[in-house]
Amino acid sequence: MGNIRLLSEALASQVAAGEVVERPASVVKELVENSIDAAATAIDVNVARGGIALIQVTDNGSGMDRDDALMCLERNATSKIRTKEDLGAIATLGFRGEAIPSIASVSKFRLATRTADAIAGTEVVMHGGKMISVADSGEAVGTSIEVRSLFYNLPARRKFLRTESTEASHLEQVVRTQAIAHEEIRFTLTSGDRLVFQLPATSSLRERIGALVGNDLAGRLLEVEPNEHRGVRVRGFIGPPGMGRSDRRQQLTFLNGRPVEAAIITRALREGYHTALMKGQYPVTFLFLEVDPSAVDVNVHPAKREVRFHDGFAVQEALAATLARTLRERMIRPVAGVGWTGIQTMPSSIVQEEFPALNPTPSITRTGDTAPAPVLFTTAERLRAATQPATHLSSEASVKGEQGIVTDPTLLGSSSHPVSEVAPPVSAAPPQASDYRLIGVLGKLYVLLESSEGLVLMDQHAAHERVLFEDMRRRLEAGGLPAQRLLVPLTVELSPRDLDIATRHLEVLAKFGIVAEPFGGQTLKIDAVPPFLKSDDPESFFHGVLDEIRTADDRSSALRLGEDIIATTVCRHAVKANDRLRERELEKLLVDLLACDMPYCCPHGRPTLIQIGYGELERKFGRRT
Predict the structure, then answer these.
(1) What distance in Å separates the CA atoms of residue 12 and residue 26, rounded to the nearest whole number?
(2) Is the dihedral of CA 350, 351, 353, 358 positive or negative?
(3) Contact at 8 Å (CB) between 129 and 13?
(4) Would you say 431 and 383 are in contact if contact means Cβ atoms under 8 Å apart?
(5) Confidence of residue 333 (pLDDT cuts 50, 70, 90)
(6) Backbone angles phi, psi at 286, to 5 degrees
(7) Could you tell me where the beta strands, DSSP code E, fall in 183-243?
(8) Are residues 488 and 470 in the same domain?
(9) Nearest-angstrom CA–CA distance, 612 and 419
(10) Are 460 and 487 in contact (CB under 8 A)?
């Protein structure tokens, strides 16, 4: 007799249920999605003991007649798709016909439903997948499903559940996520005898976000104006530069109304924020993507968390470009001081002599010099005069001129192009240097400025980093970095794959100042490197560039190519803490900073400008409650 046997129907159902029902939060997700598909305008979720003892989801949707109520308990029975063509263009949240029978097979299950034209509704009770009763009920129009004693018949699964508080937090996050995705629906969540939240229906997404995460956070979010690119429509809200979290809990992305996870979306968010967040931080996003249902596959996993795109690069490019445009155009004021934490100062140091064009010039007074500290601006007209030139200084003026601060590195070529103008935002013009009055310098690092809205602090090191970064990036994109010949060429042994990538991208390497050519076998000969490199690290610089090319070649867009290298370079050569700048130098720094595409954070994502409004000062001094 053979060893292979068919599983019993009950055991097969319980095995299949493990793919759909992982924890109480999975049950809530499936039931709420069914309510949304049923065109409900009000959804009430009631749980007990983190959903382990009870989950009840009640909606006022279309409901079901008796035949449909019984049929929905059969595996692979669904009203959402009919043909294989429907499977290629899914527009509903549910479609597999597995959720309800899976839930019923691992719980004590009750379904009560009624359609609008029915006199009486239908009640179905099942325990562990076995039918207990079918009867008439007096339910309101819609559907109510009770799930009690989850996994009572599967102790092996039940023991892997976490504490009730942990399960409750996962469950609450699911309801919050669905509430953000569908602000037009009223949501209520009750845990035991405690009302967790009650959200009225609204037409304002910002209002719904504020009700769930706080009005302070919601008020600081930047609105992403609806924008379509390559068939991908993007809208929603995102955090401003520097607003990051240590995890992805507030990084929410919805595709055609469905909360989704996809590596392409994660990469797009990273690229869109490329230099607006510190490493290790995740952006705060509430983004909605709309694509043709036929261009995305949501049938990847029974839990429907992951999706695959037919043209993933188009989605990545559209999302990254939209985020970058929003951050550039709508971030028109320094962020509030309460939003920033952990600002780090840079120790004073002497800049490397091999990169003199990026050195602070001799006119900058360092600690111990006798030159006076910066003084107040004498008149607004004088500052306005400093803002008239819209271009960087020439390389000669950058090194020898009165301004002192270097904004145009000579090794990158002549300054023949103007500074990019910040694109005008939707509602107001970006601030000008003439809008600020210099008060002084705090701690030989933080420049104190007064604006019409209160006190503004500028980190001179971070500000100069941003100015140098954008100048070097523009030159890299336009013509590339200069190259300096090595006295003795450098030979590098590479793997076959890396050698192939390097050989195919010799022109890209040349833009980074690396002149290379194949040298036989698996060897690459490097004849020239950028002149700002230290003499002992050309090989590591080459491998860093090669890693970025490999990443961009396989997955990423050109937004991030070279940025980490540029950011590290300019950090070494920007003015430091304890570099005492004169008044005219500070004027020029402020002018150049406000002319940047992204003036409010340095290339590492740290803030350059922090604003403390008069209202906050009045509260601190007890003048306002």
Answers:
(1) 19
(2) negative
(3) yes
(4) no
(5) low
(6) -130, 80
(7) 186-191, 194-199, 222-229, 232-238
(8) no
(9) 28
(10) no
408 token code pair? 């145009």
d(CA 590, CA 597): 14
Q: Look at residue 492 and give its three-state secondary structure.
A: strand
Q: How many CB atoms lie within 10 A of CB 592?
A: 25
Chain centroid offset of residue 123 CA: 45
As a whole number of angstroms, the distance between CA 17 and CA 552 comes to 40
Q: Say which residues have a Cβ less than 8 Å from residue 70's Cβ, sequence separation at least 6.
A: 124, 134
- Could you tell me the residue range of the domain that residue 411 belongs to? 338-477+573-620
Burial (0-12, 13-18, 19+ Cβ within 10 Å), 614:
middle
Q: Which two tokens stand for residue 442?
A: 């705090």
Instruction: Specify the pTM.
Output: 0.69
Burial class (CB in 10 A: 0-12, 13-18, 19+), 22: middle
Calpha distance 258→606 (Å, rounded): 33
Same domain, 211 and 290: yes
Are 459 and 592 members of one domain?
Answer: yes
Structure tokens belonging to residue 301: 């996993």
Coil, helix or strand for 230? coil
Q: How far apart are CA 381 and CA 5, in angstroms?
A: 90
What does the pLDDT look like over 202-243, one tens digit per residue? 999 999 999 999 888 898 899 998 888 888 999 999 988 878
Domain limit, last residue, from 182, 203, 224: 203
Q: Examine the domain organization and report whether 94 and 147 are in the same domain.
A: yes
What is the rounded distance in angstroms from the CA atom of residue 216 to the CA atom of residue 211? Answer: 10
| Cα–Cα dist 5/3, whole Å | 6
Residue with tokens 């500000």: 463
Contact predicate 362/581, CB 8 Å: no
Residue 107 maps to which CATH number? 3.30.565.10
* Least confident stretch, 79-83, 356-360, 611-615: 356-360
Instruction: Give the integer Cα–Cα distance in Å for 218 and 212.
Output: 9
Q: How many CB atoms lie within 10 A of CB 145?
A: 23
Q: Which of 203, 227, 247 is the last residue of a domain?
A: 203
Structure tokens at 226: 């609806």
Q: Identify whether residues 524 and 586 lie together within a single domain.
A: no
- Backbone phi, then psi, for 118, in 5-degree steps? -95, 140
Cα 397 to Cα 402: distance, rounded to the nearest angstrom: 8
Query: Which residue type sits at 323?
Result: L
Domain count, the chain: 4
Give the whole-angstrom CA distance, residue 360 versus residue 369. Answer: 14
Highest mean pLDDT among 26-35, 261-270, 593-602: 26-35
Task: Please indicate, yes or no, if residue 1 is contained in any of the structural domains.
Answer: no
Q: What pLDDT score does 408 carry? A: 40
Whether 625 is covered by a domain: the verdict is no
Q: What CATH number did the domain enclosing 311 receive?
A: 3.30.230.10
Q: For 425-434, write each residue's pLDDT tens digit.
A: 344 566 777 8
Which residues neighbour 496 within 8 Å (Cβ) at sequence distance 6 or greater? 522
The mean pLDDT value of the chain amounts to 77
How far apart CA 279 and CA 563 sit, in angstroms, is 13
